[in-house]
């Protein structure tokens, strides 16, 4: 029989044009550290000025923190902490995608805890200190992928060691998340696809780990998989398609975020994060795409029924005598339709000689025993990397 275990305290403000409600909603402070990505997009687009104006209309003073990069680092977080402490900020706002919202969350942790962020990392070289609390966080999403808008995680890279690790604590659930699909219509096609697959794998991995136990994980995960399967090819073809953008954003930032808030993902994500830590120019979604076909072929014999269920959700027919192959067929079809099946790892600086190092970090430093419901060895990971390398 199934069970239910549910705790997601974030208020979600979702829908076209709803960013305007930022000027009237009750906010958790009076002086915000606004975290934005140094990508040359947010400011020229006028979105940052719009957000500052809406916050000002709500009586909130804004301090800009543009010390944010894709695959955000410990060093960048601590620069943000320095600014927030010096300026007396009492809450953090992340404006952008996973990098900026995760940075806002990490800064929020350090506004309530002494020392350096890495002292609070629970794996690898982290100090494993307890996080006592965090400053409030408001998320304003401009992408559809990570689910950080509705989950208690942030992912930060230690620039000295190359480790890319999760920080997980209920205190960093955003208090409010503004998710306005109209903001995403100018998002570049390749980022739309990378983020859409990130959302897809969040849902699929959580569905696998859940094993049909928590009914709400199955509901959220299945609906996210269904929506991404249907709408990602459409939004990849036409980024101005508002119906597609709305459905992808709902799947990614709400449904997949909810699945992650209730249960963990698999080693697919851990391997992908490790690659992002070692090769910072590799987008997270791209790392998952590159690994996906080989990864799911590897685990098909270990969780055939879960993959069979996911394949059915994707609308793929069963394959006689080959349980779970329908999921791989659906995955390959979606990779082909969106044109990302042949993404090359070699373009991001990785060489075949790096495979063993990656496997060592994944198994020995980060650890996969606590997340997977099956057992993968270092040799398995090396084989997945070998099959994925181009």
Low-confidence stretches: none
Largest sheet data: 6 strands, parallel
The backbone outline, from C-alpha atoms, is: globular
Q: Rg, please?
A: 20 Å
String of helices and strands: EEHHEHEHEEEEHHHHHHHHH
Average pLDDT level? 96
Number of helices: 13
Structural class: alpha/beta
Distance N to C terminus = 44 Å
The tally of strands reads 8
- Measured by DSSP, the beta-strand proportion falls in 5-15%
Arrangement of strands in the largest sheet: 1-8-5-4-2-3
Q: Assign a percent range to the helix content.
A: 40-55%
Summarize the structure.
The protein has 390 residues and is α/β, with parallel strands linked by helices. The protein has helices at 42-45, 47-57, 74-87, 98-110, 189-210, 215-237, 242-262, 267-278, 284-299, 304-313, 325-338, 355-366, 378-388, and strands spanning 11-14, 31-35, 61-65, 91-96, 137-141, 153-157, 164-168, 176-179. 53% of the residues are buried.
Structure characterization notes:
The chain is α/β, with parallel strands linked by helices. The mean pLDDT is 96. Helix 6 runs antiparallel to helix 7 (242-262), helix 9 (284-299) packs antiparallel against helix 11 (325-338) and helix 10 crosses helix 11. The protein starts with 10 loop residues before the first strand and ends with a helix. A hairpin with a 6-residue loop joins strand 6 and strand 7 (164-168). The strands form 2 sheets. It has a 6-stranded parallel beta sheet, with helices on both faces. 47% of the residues lie in helices and 10% in strands. It is built from 13 helices and 8 strands.
């Amino acid at each position: 029989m199934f069970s239910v275990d549910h705790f997601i305290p974030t208020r979600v403000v979702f829908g076209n044009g709803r960013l305007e409600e930022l000027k009237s909603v009750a906010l958790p402070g009076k002086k915000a550290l606004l975290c934005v990505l140094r990508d040359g997009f947010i400011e020229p687009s006028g979105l940052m000025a719009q957000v500052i104006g809406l916050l000002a209309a709500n009586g909130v003073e804004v301090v800009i923190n543009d010390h944010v990069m894709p695959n955000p680092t410990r060093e960048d977080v601590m620069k943000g902490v320095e600014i927030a402490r010096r300026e007396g900020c009492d809450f953090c706002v992340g404006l952008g995608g996973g990098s900026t919202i995760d940075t806002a969350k990490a800064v929020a942790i350090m506004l309530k805890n002494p020392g350096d962020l890495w002292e609070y990392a629970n794996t690898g070289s982290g100090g494993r200190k307890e996080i006592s609390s965090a400053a409030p966080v408001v998320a304003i999403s401009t992408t559809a992928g990570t689910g950080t808008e509705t989950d208690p995680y942030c992912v930060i890279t230690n620039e000295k060691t190359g480790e890319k690790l999760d920080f997980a604590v209920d205190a960093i659930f955003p208090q409010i998340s503004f998710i306005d699909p109209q903001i995403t219509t100018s998002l570049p096609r390749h980022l739309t696809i990378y983020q859409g697959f990130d959302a897809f794998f969040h849902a699929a991995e959580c569905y696998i780990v859940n094993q049909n136990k928590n009914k709400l994980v199955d509901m959220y995960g299945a609906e996210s998989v269904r929506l991404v399967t249907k709408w990602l090819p459409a939004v990849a073809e036409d980024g101005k398609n508002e119906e597609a953008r709305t459905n992808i954003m709902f799947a990614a930032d709400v449904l997949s975020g909810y699945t992650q808030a209730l249960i963990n993902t698999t080693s697919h994500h851990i391997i992908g994060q490790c690659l992002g830590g070692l090769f910072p120019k590799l987008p997270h979604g791209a790392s998952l795409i590159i690994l996906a076909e080989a990864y799911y072929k590897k685990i098909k014999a270990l969780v055939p029924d879960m993959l069979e269920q996911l394949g059915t959700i994707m609308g793929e027919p069963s394959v006689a005598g080959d349980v779970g192959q329908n999921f791989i067929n659906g995955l390959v079809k979606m990779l082909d339709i969106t044109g990302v099946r042949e993404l090359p790892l070699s373009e991001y600086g990785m060489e075949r000689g790096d495979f063993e190092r990656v496997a060592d970090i994944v198994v020995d430093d980060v650890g996969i025993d606590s997340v997977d419901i099956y057992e993968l060895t270092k040799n398995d990971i090396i084989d997945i990397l070998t099959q994925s390398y181009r």
